[in-house]
Design brief:
62% of the residues lie in helices and 0% in strands. With 252 residues, it is an all-alpha fold.
Length: 252
């Protein structure tokens, strides 16, 4: 799969600079898709279409919790911050991770935004033992040093996500922050962002737990590579006329 990823990445690089209109359409699509999927994995009840209404029209969906609306707006703001960071020349730091988290919970759980947990965290349905609260600051300091020195790319992006969710430094929002951090490292290296949908949740959590409990890296890497391949296919479908179906251009 790695060879296929590299081949399709070369095809994408060969299309640069990307047409502004197509790039804008892709960005709008990923704004909604990443927000919908990342929140849905964590139990947000907004559908894909409802998420689009909240983000693009500012419409409140009747019958849905206020928290779900706030989480959608928070995630988009965090994603926009990540896109800005991807264009910066400065190394990614521990501070950036905390700032991403602060935006992820900025409206929905303001009291926890950007703060390391002071209580023991547990992952429901998992045997993984998370670090104690007293261990979080030194672990995150080490993680921050690693982030500032690592070369952005697929391997670094997947590893950053794994390390952060395994430290699990925050009371809530660890998964959303980890996925945004992963996509920050991908964007900096010229890759598209990874989308992990609610339909992928069982395989996603299983792959993480296999690595966390037994050190088996292959299921995790294979899962992430497959999701990245899907995003590459989406980009190429929109940007390469030869890959489009005979029914016309896809809606981005």
């Amino acid at each position: 799969m790695q060879a296929e990823l590299e081949a399709k990445k070369q095809r994408l690089d060969g299309l640069r600079p990307l047409a502004p209109e197509s790039l804008a359409a892709l960005e709008r699509w990923f704004d909604v898709e990443l927000t919908y999927t990342s929140n849905a994995i964590e139990g947000n009840t907004l559908t894909r279409q409802e998420t689009a209404l909240v983000l693009e029209k500012g419409i409140t969906v009747r019958g849905k919790p206020l928290k779900d609306h706030l989480e959608a707006v928070d995630h988009l703001e965090a994603w926009n911050y990540v896109k800005d960071l991807a264009q910066a020349a400065t190394p990614i730091s521990e501070h950036d991770v905390r700032q991403i988290h602060a935006l992820v919970l900025g409206r929905s759980q303001r009291q926890e935004a950007g703060r390391y947990s002071q209580t023991q965290r547990l992952i429901a349905g998992s045997k993984v033992v998370l670090p104690a609260p007293v261990e979080i600051p030194p672990l995150m300091a080490d993680f921050g040093q690693w982030l500032t020195s690592v070369e952005p790319g697929c391997a670094a992006a997947f590893e950053a996500h794994y390390r952060l969710v395994s430290i699990h430094p925050f009371t809530d929002g660890n998964g959303r922050t980890g996925r945004l951090l992963m996509n920050l490292l991908l964007l900096r290296a010229g890759w598209p962002p990874v989308v992990i949908g609610p339909e992928h949740r069982p395989d996603y959590l299983d792959a993480l737990e296999q690595r966390q409990t037994g050190g088996d890296v292959e299921p995790y890497d294979t899962f992430m590579q497959a999701r990245l391949l899907e995003s590459l296919d989406r980009y190429l479908e929109v940007l390469e006329p030869s890959t489009r179906s005979s029914t016309g251009s896809p809606t981005a």
